[in-house]
Amino acid sequence: MTMQWGGVMPALTTAFREDLSVDLEFIRRHCEWLIENGCTGLVALGSLGEGATLTEPEKAEVLAACVAAAGARVPVVAGISALSTREAISLAGIAERTGCSGLMVLPPYVYLGDWRETKAHVTAVLRATKLSCMLYNNPIAYGIDFVVEQVEELAHENENLHAIKESSTDVRRVTALQAVLGKRLKVLVGVDDAIVESAAVGAVGWIAGLVNAFPKESVALFELAKDGRMVEALELYRWFLPLLRMDTVPKFVQLIKLAQQEVGVGSSRVRPPRLELIGHELEDARESISRAISSRPERMQSTAFGSKAPAAAL
User: Fold this and answer.
1) Annotated catalytic residue 216
2) Is 136 a catalytic residue?
């Protein structure tokens, strides 16, 4: 289907069974539930999806499960991250053959190259596919910052670069990119606790984390902010912020999966080297999640964690 960059697009978690094999059945149900609750696309194999712990065959299976669940309703985007350019190109080909509509292109893992090397890697991936692509800028996590001038260079030289996931945490980047590129590049935000500010200055989408557990709230928050209904947006934002901040710390995967488990939509299982939370970390996180659930704004009380929610991945 035609790739549309915008709205609330979950950075999907990857569900695991007790033996830590990939739970494809749950992934399909989870995708369906997110779509039913208003999400406009699905982004698989990102850092929240623990893509670095998946084999290439597992990645192909996850993408196929997402595509099957989405059908013709919303596009599926594959995260393209790898140690080598050759591996990244191979994964881009798998995504295209599997039926994905877009790619989220990351800099290479581990090696922090200079601009010449990083540009060569990203360009090689972009030119290896016909799919619409989104550049992922996350200097905090990956150590490489695609500054505005570099993004402009990539956009002008690659026709299929249509969007950027901006996760520098600097909201000024949204307006800076728009000033240089106008409507040439869609700006989406990938930092959960910066979404209201970013939408208010023109970000057209949110690659979201806590949406995996709270889709109705996430979609409502983005729509209110995008439409300029700031009094309502800020009321919901203040309630949501303790959870949204879980997306910005080193153990964000464990925390978001725990949130899913606490609302009955998944399990907290992660693959090593990550380990599930224990002790005070677990207690504090559970308390924060429980407090949010019990104080959920009244108009959000009907969130479909009942008949529409997939059974927890046990």
Assistant:
1) no
2) yes
